[in-house]
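Exercise 7b. Backbone tokens:
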């Protein structure tokens, strides 16, 4: 997919599937296939293979290729597949090149391993990932990587860069960056489904959804309600399912992934354990999670006529 075409498709919910593991922490490829088939109904705007929710940093290059290949095969060209890449310039370019060879449509660049890099080094890191393929590049601003407008203006000159995924939820800074660069980049809300009301109020019309793992219809409905200005429906979905889930995810570091996997297991999908340094959900928190199963199961069989409150 040409990078301009990729950019034009990224409106709505972008799915961030987990990478399911077996009990011995090997990659559960068949579980991944089943999960991707599930989250394609209704189809999201795109799917990110081996992203943050997909535990990119825990995968070997061979496992990363297996995950990208599987997601590409299951999507069958119906929607774009974006592959996560990062760590170092050498590893990131290797992952990006392999993903392109496997049929990915775009690259999501994660911050590098070194958290104190000079701006010049950061530009060269992202330049290397962008030059690795002709695919559209998206930069994922997360964790320690919290650039100001001067750095973003330099990065916006990279020829393959098409989009920016905000992973911090700092709307003041995001507003400043958008004022600085404008429509040169396609802006994506990436801090979580719980940020949809704020992101869409700020004018964004795309977000990355981990809830698509368990309720793709809910992800689609969040976008439709927020974009359409249906405040009542949006508030109902947020209070009944999204906010309680994200409250649990915030209880412990790493829970943003392990809670989603535990909920998937409860709903009959393939989640499995997480790899260190992430931690699995504690038994007492699983009990809390079980209380949310009904709300999400309703979305598995179609949008509920009356949302639980």
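Sequence design result:
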């Amino acid at each position: 997919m040409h990078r301009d075409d990729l950019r034009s498709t990224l409106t709505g919910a972008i799915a961030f599937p987990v990478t399911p593991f077996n009990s011995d922490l090997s990659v559960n490829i068949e579980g991944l296939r089943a999960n991707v088939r599930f989250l394609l109904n209704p189809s999201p705007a795109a799917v990110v293979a081996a992203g943050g929710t997909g535990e990119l940093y825990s995968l070997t290059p061979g496992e990363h290729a297996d995950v990208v290949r599987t997601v590409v095969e299951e999507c069958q060209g119906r929607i774009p597949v974006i592959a996560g890449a990062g760590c170092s310039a050498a590893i990131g370019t290797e992952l990006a090149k392999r993903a392109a060879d496997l049929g990915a449509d775009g690259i999501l660049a994660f911050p590098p391993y070194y958290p104190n890099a000079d701006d010049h080094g950061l530009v060269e890191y992202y330049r290397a990932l962008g030059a690795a393929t002709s695919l559209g590049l998206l930069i994922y601003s997360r964790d320690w990587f919290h650039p100001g407008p001067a750095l973003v203006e330099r990065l916006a000159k990279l020829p393959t860069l098409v989009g920016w995924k905000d992973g911090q939820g700092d709307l003041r800074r995001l507003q400043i960056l958008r004022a600085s660069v404008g429509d040169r980049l396609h802006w994506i809300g990436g801090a979580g489904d719980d940020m949809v009301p704020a992101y869409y109020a700020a004018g964004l019309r795309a977000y990355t959804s981990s809830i698509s793992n368990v309720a793709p219809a809910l992800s689609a409905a969040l976008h439709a309600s927020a974009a359409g200005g249906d405040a009542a429906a949006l508030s109902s979905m947020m209070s009944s399912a999204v906010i309680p889930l994200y409250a649990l995810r915030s209880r412990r570091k790493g829970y943003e992934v392990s809670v989603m996997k535990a909920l998937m297991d409860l709903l009959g999908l393939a989640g499995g354990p997480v790899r260190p340094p992430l931690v699995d959900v504690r038994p007492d928190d699983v009990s809390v999670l079980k209380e949310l199963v009904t709300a999400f199961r309703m979305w598995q069989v179609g949008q509920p006529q009356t949302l639980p409150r």
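Instructor comment: The two ends are 42 Å apart (CA to CA). The CA atoms of residues 119 and 151 lie 7 Å apart.
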